[in-house]
Amino acid sequence: MLELSVPTSANLKAKLLVAGLDRKHHQPRPPKLHSSILPSLSITNSQQPAQPVALFPPVNQSVAAIVFGDGSDSRLYPLTKRRSEGAIPIAANYRLIDAVVSNCINSNINKIYALTQFNSTSLNSHLTRAYSGVGLGKEGFVEVIAACQSPEYNGWFQGTADAIRRCLWVLEEYPIVEFLVLPGHHLYKMDYQKLIEAHRKKKSDVTCAVLTGKKNQVSEFGIFEVNSDNKVTNFREKPDKNPMKPILVKRSVKSNDSTSKKFPGMGIYVINRDAMIKLLREHFPEANVLKSEVIPGAISLGMKVNAYRFDGYWEDMRSIEAFYDANMESTKKANMGYNFYDKDSPLYTLPRNLPPSLVTDAVITDSVIGDGCILNKCSIKGTVVGMRTRIGDGALIEDSVLMGSDIYQIQDVQTNGSEGMGIPIGIGEGSHIRRAIVDKNARIGKNVMIINKDNVQEANMEAHGYSIKEGIVIILRSAVIKDGSIL
User: What is the dihedral of CA 329, 331, 336, 338, to 10 degrees?
Assistant: First the structure.
């Protein structure tokens, strides 16, 4: 199935209240939000609670989202060699962070701060270009706060808690009631309004989203013990090699409820403004990490810490294989994972204004094709083809992820100069690629075989332009694979 782009700017003005995001330095500009498949871009939430909590102002006035674009620099390496996890391309036209920002927009949360640090150049550029032209309401914005030094703080962010503490002076700019803390590299759809409503009904200080859809789900965000009233009674972190052990919870909440259950955390927290300030500045001024220090600390202090149970699809991109599988799921007709085609909860991204893909005598089955591709007499099966991808005659691409290119390049490139530069960006004639991830701007020569012929599970061949993780061949960004190579 092909993914088609539909111009959306005509609908945006009727659906959104447009205002410039850079309130101090720029005049309002035309809308830039874009959904690659949907004719309507209404940001009103069709799942808005029928009986909102009347004692609180609406979420677009009272909630600020704090999105962390930086994940671990190793789980998706080498895709994170030159970018943060949130900036990794997915499903041909998008970046991982688009899923979380779109959740905010679809949940009517229009104050979004993105805190970035690790390999953040690509991510900062994407967020600024994709979301800086549209304000969600008169005071809506997506604002990037990059790590920096100040007279009060030196050095880099030491963790999520340290980052928020350093940025509280910015986050306190508006009369916010709650902060919604979100990892920016997870793939899922959630109506945050329901999460916030549950938080307010329980009069919680902290609400932690937990996953109920999968049993024995491994999570880097620890395990929450929750009673039948959704009160968190204990927290345990699961280290990679050590057995489960309590973290910082000096005293658990006493509970006589024999029905208490354990759920993996999602790294999603709603924290009252006053509670956040007290936790970070008064109770734990030296704490660096929310998940293993501040949240368990709040439980130890006897604060009202509750859980919000989520039973939908959630992928935290914990490995190359998980990332690969999420892309493969987008090509299937019976989609059991993330729905990229949901008209009620669209996925927004940067509009590139690329031409339609040019397909010449190609055979394409069960695949997603991004914008502006040039596909000649090739065969593509079960593959995600990213933007501006060029595939030559006779090439066969199977069960792979091609991230595309940042530029168009004429095929008769110069043959002199650097070694391999005579090979144009894209996939050369007669090449065969199977179960692989090809990063951006890679140059695959003619008659190349990328099929992991020896069934290698792990290999570090970065000096030769590729790596193998969990049996998946990864061609590095801007790598050059010479004509006739066999990987």
Answer: 70
Nearest to 320 by CA among 458, 228, 197, 432: 458
Question: Mean pLDDT by 10-residue block, N- to C-terminus, for the chain (487 residues)?
Answer: 39 34 39 44 40 62 89 79 92 95 92 89 90 68 81 78 89 89 94 95 95 70 91 79 44 60 94 95 93 92 95 90 94 83 90 92 95 95 96 97 89 48 90 97 96 94 95 96 94
Residue 144, both tokens: 């990037």
Contacts 24+ apart (CB under 8 A), 300-303: 300/248, 300/249, 300/250, 300/251, 302/251, 302/253, 303/205, 303/206, 303/275
Q: What is the DSSP letter of 425?
A: S
- Up-side HSE of residue 467: CA atoms within 13 Å toward CB? 15
Query: How many other C-beta atoms can be found within 10 angstroms of the C-beta atom of residue 62?
Result: 18
Give yes or no for a cis peptide into 78 (omega within 30° of 0). Answer: yes
Burial class (CB in 10 A: 0-12, 13-18, 19+), 297: buried
Nearest-angstrom CA–CA distance, 468 and 487: 10
How much is the pTM?
0.82
- Residues belonging to the chain: 487
State the DSSP string of 377-395.
Answer: S-EEES-EE-TT-EE-TT-
Amino acid 263 reads: F
Instruction: For Cα atoms 108, 109, 113, give the angle at the middle one, nearest 5 degrees.
Output: 155
Residue with token string 């130890």 = 300
